[in-house]
Amino acid sequence: MKTQSHAQAAAEFIKDDARTHWHDETLWHVRQKRDLSAQGIPEWETLRDTASATKDYVLSHLDELLEQFEANALANGVEVLWAKDAQEHNEHVYRILQENKVSNIVKSKSILTEECGLNHYLEDKGYDVVDTDLGERIIQFAKQAPSHIVLPAIHLKKQDIGEIFHEHIGTDEGASDPKYLTEAARQHLRKKFVEANAAITGVNFGIAETGGFVVCTNEGNADMGTHLADIHIACMGIEKLIPRATDLGVFLRLLARSATGQSITNYSSHFHKPAPGKKLYIILVDNGRTEQLGREDFKNSLKCIRCGACMNTCPIYRRSGGYSYNSTVPGPIGSILSPGKDLKKYSTLPFASTLCGSCSDVCPVKINIHEQLYKWRQVITENTDVDASKNLAMKVAGYTFGRPVLYDLAGKMARAALKITPDSLVYSSINVWGKHRNLPDVPKESFKEWYQKNRKS
Amino acid sequence: MRVGLFIPCYVDQFYPGVAKATLELLEKHGVEVDYPLSQTCCGQPMANSGYERYGKASSELFMKNFGGFDYIVAPSGSCTLHVKDHVLPKEENAPKIYELCEFLTDVLKVKDIASTFPYKVGFHSSCHGLRGLRLAKCSERMDPEFNKPLSLLKQVKEIEMIELDRKDECCGFGGTFAVAEEAVSVTMGNDRLADHTRNGVEVLTGADMSCLMHLQGLIKRQNSPIKVMHIAEILNGNPVE
Ligand code: SF4
């Protein structure tokens, strides 16, 4: 099956103009909250520089730091597992669940487990995985994927959520008051927390120096899960490391502000060792990360701390919705991560950008996202056969622009052609530009022609 | 000081008035301008579409035309950025390319632009100039405020600069993006336009004619009364047409 291009999916989304603008405004509002809170930090740019340099260090010393992290975690009584890909990761989780005779699982937000398709994998094995992040629970009910990495249900309006809750947890029909719905979800989840015997979490930061890790949530759902269940499985991408505990302050300050404009995430929970009588597992997952690390032009995409700011700021994401990217991580960062996984499938994503650069300037770890989009474009046109007609057109353009006489002639012909072509043809359905936009008026002469007549003596 | 004028291909072909205004403006401020006649295009359209490799001939031609100048000036942030990043050799004595506004503020240090423009003007901050060349502080960064194009417009007599709700959001042109992602591109353009309209802008200006061409296309189709002019035309004292 041919996957829909980003442009096609975006065009679908945009058909609902009111909803598109609601989506744009909602996310722009988050971007504005981010601006306001960043403005309150005089050393904001220094923080970004520091975080970026720290992550650069991590990526260039990943092997050492991972070993250090593992050794310290083991010494803390944590069981550490390695997974080269999604399959291995899922199998580890399954084995742990089996070994510990787990029947009820709660899971706080983890994009990594989304990337690995853990929920589906476990469901196929007969488990019911309860996502405990409110947004994630909503889309889990609706059988949807997250459309945003921080705000997974951001594409849904409160009325949509009211309907979903009515169907799944029996809230009143037509009720859409956020307070009422949240309270209902809280009661529903409370039961799940109490019943759970395993809690799965993601990891925001793993600290090499201590072997500990930090999980950030706004709802405290990771804590509820891990405190009540006997088994805690923390799923962590190998790039999530930071060297020292003292580095944490920089990242926590940046993360919350970049993500939502909060000065601190409500719960930054530190885990070091299993509580007496309980078990703590860390699964370190590669799943294509070392491969990306080997790509000089693209490796620093792994610095990402998943704050979502590049999505909130992206004028295309805001108007095309998370699903238009058709990848676990949507938006600008997704568009530079996904081609590394499947160049063909994600070949339109690096083109879903005007290269405006807002993502790179908003990114708390200073990933040069728009430059990588540009570089992926070069890789894609060279290594896929996605667009043969464009290839030819570009070849011709390249040839023409290299030859002044040809260029002058081509320009003259284009202007002449535009002048004599009737509007009905100029603005026909073949001319995509002209569907909603006029072409510029055609001047009687080019600047060069004018210059030759008037200035060259 | 030898200054070579680089006129981007679409400006040459469709907006000769902008090129003339640029030439006159530079001359007015005492610059001796040379316009190499065998110039074509910087190669950006190919490169941004993923075909940087087909831009070799145009890059070589560019260097043949402009390699001998101290300064190259172009009335386009986007083309300037491309030349800077991908065409000019990264050598000490290679020519330096400036976008028109930054050449006026940073090299000529113009303090009196000597132009009058009694209109309500909205400035479209094109992304490549803004975030690529750093013509101004963008809203994402938390550095001290500065704005080169605006500092020039503020020297224009009787002009009223209009504040926009989103002061530096992209208009959705993006080269081939404008066609490949038509739906998003048009929506973005309309949203920018609505911002200008809502805030009472009479003349929409900017330092990149490509973005302005996109916005003008929408304006004309919708019969909006907003006029579009390149910043060179305003700084040069051209009348509104
Ligand atoms: S790329 Fe940067 S801005 Fe985007 S999610 Fe990652 S850290 Fe945040």
Summarize the main sheet of chain B.
Answer: 4 strands, parallel
Q: Report the portion of residues of chain B in β strands.
A: 5-15%
Major sheet summary line of chain A: 6 strands, parallel
- Rounded mean pLDDT of chain A is 93
Based on DSSP secondary structure assignment, what is the total number of beta strands of chain B?
8
Average residue pLDDT of chain B: 95
Oligomerization state: heterodimer
**CATH level 1 class label of the domain at 41-287 in chain A:** Alpha Beta
| Alpha-beta classification of chain B | alpha/beta
CATH topology tier name of the largest domain in chain B: Rossmann fold
Q: Which strand order spans the largest sheet of chain A, edge to edge or round the barrel?
A: 1-10-7-4-2-3
Structural class by secondary-structure content of chain A: alpha/beta
Kindly report the CATH topology of the domain at 41-287 in chain A.
Rossmann fold
Number of domains of chain B: 2
**How many strand segments of chain A?**
10
Task: Write a structural description.
The complex is a heterodimer of chains A (457) and B (241). Chain A is an alpha/beta fold and 457 residues long. Among the domains of chain A are: 41-287, Rossmann fold; 389-454, no CATH class. Helices cover 51% and strands 10% of the residues of chain A. In chain A, the strands form 2 sheets. In chain A, strands 1-10-7-4-2-3 form a 6-stranded parallel beta sheet, with helices on both faces. In chain A, strands 8-5-6-9 form a 4-stranded mixed beta sheet. Chain B has 241 residues and is α/β, with parallel strands linked by helices. Helix content of chain B is 44%, strand content 12%. The two termini of chain B are 34 Å apart. Chain B folds into 2 domains: 3-107; 120-235, Rossmann fold. In chain B, strand 7, helix 11 (209-221) and strand 8 (227-230) form a beta-alpha-beta unit. Chain B contains 12 helices and 8 strands. Chain B has a 4-stranded parallel beta sheet with strand order 2-1-3-4, sandwiched between helices. In chain B, strands 6-5-7-8 form a 4-stranded parallel beta sheet. In chain B, helix 10 (182-198) packs across helix 11 (209-221). Chain B is globular. The interface between A and B is large, with 76 and 75 residues.
